[in-house]
User: Which sequence fits this backbone?
């Protein structure tokens, strides 16, 4: 498959790195030769220094043979133009990065279809939705919802050391997860949820019945929404508060979109150092949101704004280190829910080691959205997990596909794959070994990173 990526910025280079590992024929184009040289030295791709809106340049890059053209330069108008040109010159499918929310409205979709642009991607909006989902519960690291009714959920929860498992006389360890195998948990508490993966230090584990949950594990649960309370109790999180008050540091585009995605019932403050930007934010955010002019590292200011009384602290400045350290400081102040934007992939493990809470990476979120276009199966949503070496995708089962031929346990799925749950006729349910998948089922698959394309043959 030949893929042309226009733009050698953060998103473009991340995509090039990801797709080159998949043995794709990747061409990266950008007028900045310095950016291209840095990427070309590390990856097995073709890097061409051309302007993406140049017709002759696109022809030189071989756009007529492209299976997918991805426009992710920093400039929205350039992305729309070069994607439209690429389609006219023969590219089979095109996707363009934008930063205008108005373009995402369903009633405007036809305009871009007529231009030849199959998909639009707005990384800040996608990231804001993840922030809003994760902020629903102070005890959940990340949360993804599936189905029209949003009643199938995937949660990640951090297990802490203070669970009473060392001494059987302390507390009620039979009602907790740490120190018990998955088999024991199923026997004691029924099957209200599936543990589909465990992130343990730097390793992602696809667990089986004899796997024991340990302190500091990041555990991924698949469950019906009605069973979220059960997971909360068994994880020892009953004392975590409901999120009513939140503070965001950094007043960039992501903060604005997060403001609109977070519920109106949540009291929200945004701290921004630029007075001019504060004035702009006052016109762009909801009425309930208080804009504060100040530095995010000014602890006196934060304390005056009720730092220690917050249920959620969200760090969205352009500086990864500042975001990480701010969340560490917030957790030491007793804030239970912390969210940090971390764009440098090299910092992700450090952020997890420092227990900063939920980590948001726009590059991976954007890559997830684009990567699903490469799958031959019908995939509705796809997530590349930020802190785990794993992917999640929602496959739609087609008539006659391989997964309909026998029960799940007899399908011979590759090791490292878990079918966690599904939506059938609008109803959420968990998937077990005896489950027989049917046409139209929407199945949530959790698998080790890089395995989704291997699953294509089961669902296509």
Assistant:
């Amino acid at each position: 498959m030949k893929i042309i990526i226009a733009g050698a910025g953060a998103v473009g280079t991340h995509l090039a790195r990801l797709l080159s590992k998949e043995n794709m024929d990747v061409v990266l184009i950008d007028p900045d030769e310095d950016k291209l040289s840095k990427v070309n030295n590390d990856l097995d791709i073709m890097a061409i220094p051309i302007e993406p809106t140049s017709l002759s340049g696109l022809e030189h890059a071989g756009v007529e043979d492209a299976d997918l053209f991805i426009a992710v330069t920093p400039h929205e108008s350039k992305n729309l133009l070069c994607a439209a040109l690429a389609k006219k010159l023969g590219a089979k499918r095109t996707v363009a990065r934008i930063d205008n929310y108005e373009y995402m409205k369903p009633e405007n979709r036809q305009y871009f279809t007529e231009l030849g642009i199959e998909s639009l991607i707005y990384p800040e909006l996608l990231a804001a939705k993840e922030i809003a989902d994760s902020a629903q519960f102070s005890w959940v690291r990340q949360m993804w919802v599936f189905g029209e009714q949003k009643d199938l959920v995937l949660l990640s929860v951090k297990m802490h050391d203070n669970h009473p498992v060392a001494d059987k006389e302390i507390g009620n360890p039979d009602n907790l997860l740490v120190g018990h195998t998955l088999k024991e948990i199923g026997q004691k508490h029924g099957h209200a949820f599936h543990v589909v993966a465990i992130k343990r230090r730097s390793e992602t584990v696809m667990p089986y019945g004899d796997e024991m949950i340990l302190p500091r594990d990041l555990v991924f649960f698949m469950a019906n929404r009605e069973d979220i309370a059960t997971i909360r109790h068994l994880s020892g999180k009953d004392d975590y508060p409901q999120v009513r008050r939140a503070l965001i540091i950094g007043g960039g585009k992501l903060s604005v979109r997060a403001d609109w995605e977070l519920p109106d019932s949540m009291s929200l403050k945004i701290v921004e150092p630029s007075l001019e930007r504060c004035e702009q934010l006052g016109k762009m955010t909801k009425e309930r949101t208080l804009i504060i002019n100040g530095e995010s590292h000014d602890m006196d200011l934060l304390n005056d704004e009720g730092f220690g009384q917050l249920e959620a602290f969200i760090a969205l400045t352009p500086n990864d280190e500042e975001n990480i350290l701010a969340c560490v400081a917030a957790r030491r102040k007793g804030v239970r829910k912390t969210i940090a934007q971390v764009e440098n992939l090299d910092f992700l493990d450090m952020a997890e080691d420092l227990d900063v809470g939920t980590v948001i990476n726009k590059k991976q979120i954007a890559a997830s959205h684009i990567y699903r276009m490469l799958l031959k199966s019908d995939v509705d949503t796809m997530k590349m997990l930020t802190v785990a070496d794993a992917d999640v995708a929602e496959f739609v089962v087609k008539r006659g596909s391989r997964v309909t031929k026998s029960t799940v346990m007899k399908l011979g799925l590759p090791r490292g794959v878990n079918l966690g749950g599904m939506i059938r006729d609008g109803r959420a349910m968990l998937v077990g070994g005896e489950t027989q998948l049917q046409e139209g089922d929407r199945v949530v698959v959790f698998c080790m990173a890089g395995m989704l394309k291997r699953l294509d043959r089961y669902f296509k």
